[in-house]
Design goal:
By secondary structure, this protein is an alpha/beta fold. It has one domain: Rossmann fold. It has eight helices and nine strands. The strands form two sheets. The protein has a seven-stranded mixed sheet, covered by helices on one side. Helix 7 links the parallel strand 4 and strand 5. It is globular. The N terminus is likely disordered.
Length: 275
């Protein structure tokens, strides 16, 4: 490796780098994360997430009181939302809206040129309310352009994590899980890694899951991911197309409750019709 490429990185082993950068991390260390509740841009869905969180907090408190042990705050606060559905049902558009809400600023200061009757131009300040979270984006492209200095800086930076998106969570799935021990191991290790990510950084996890192996005429496809993943999910949503490719529905079937969100998708993005 050329000296000019790594000249800005102190000499240390990979283990020392990981130990140094992970030393200050932990549940609640990020100022954003689930503490400020990363919003998806869909108020009705965020209200449902908050309702589910309150229920988990109450259940955890009751269990902790019965066992006389402290409640696991990380598991209670952080939610893992799964959006499943067939192709072309708006799943990716929904997660893109959540990402946009996360990275757009709350408001944008503008100056408009106003011309009066005398032809004089005056700057008119205006505030454009966007309603975003104002979070930053980290994009790291390692395809033949690996920058060691930037890699070390990103790992060492005290980033505030808010939202992690997987599209799709089933990308690692293949059918021979019963006979292939390596494949079966992935179905356990990947959900456990996601669980550790949520606990460590207190982030919201938003996942897209395609429908596979759906019997002809059936409304829903059978569950094909592991029990480890099924136990990790805190909120399951089902996306379906109502007519053509313009109107869609997102539904949640919980214990004794049903919530439905109708929305449409056009060139302007996702528009909520009702909730």
């Amino acid at each position: 490796m050329r000296a000019g490429v790594a000249g800005g990185v102190a000499e240390e082993t990979a283990f020392e780098l990981l130990r140094r950068t992970r030393g200050g991390a932990g549940p609640g260390s990020g100022a954003r994360g689930c503490g400020l509740f990363a919003r998806t841009g869909l108020p009705a869905l965020d209200a449902l997430r908050e309702t589910q969180r309150v229920k988990r907090r109450a259940a955890a408190a009751a269990e902790a009181a019965a066992k006389k042990t402290p409640a696991a705050a990380a598991d209670v606060l952080c939610d893992v939302v799964e959006i499943s559905g067939a192709t072309q049902t708006g799943k990716t558009e929904l997660v893109l809206r959540a990402v946009a809400t996360c990275v757009l600023p709350a408001e944008l200061e503008l100056e408009l040129d106003a011309h009066d009757g005398d032809g004089e131009s005056k700057a008119a300040p205006r505030t454009l309310h966007l309603g975003g979270e104002g979070a930053s984006v980290v994009f790291f492209d390692s395809d033949l352009r690996l920058n060691v200095v930037r890699l070390a800086a990103i790992i060492a930076a005290p980033l505030e994590k808010a939202l992690v998106v997987f599209d799709s969570i089933a990308a690692h799935y293949w059918q021979d899980t019963e006979t292939d021990s390596v494949s079966a191991g992935f179905h356990v290790s990947i959900p456990l890694a996601i669980q550790q990510l949520a606990r460590r950084h207190m982030v919201a996890i938003l996942c897209v899951k395609p429908m596979l192996f759906q019997p002809r005429g059936a409304d829903r496809a059978p569950e094909y991911l592991s029990q480890t993943w099924q136990k990790l999910v805190t909120l399951r949503l089902f996306a379906e197309c109502l007519d053509g490719h313009s109107r869609f529905r997102l539904s949640h079937l919980g214990q004794g409750e049903e919530r439905v969100f109708d929305f449409s998708i056009d060139h302007a993005g996702v528009k909520v019709a009702s909730s």
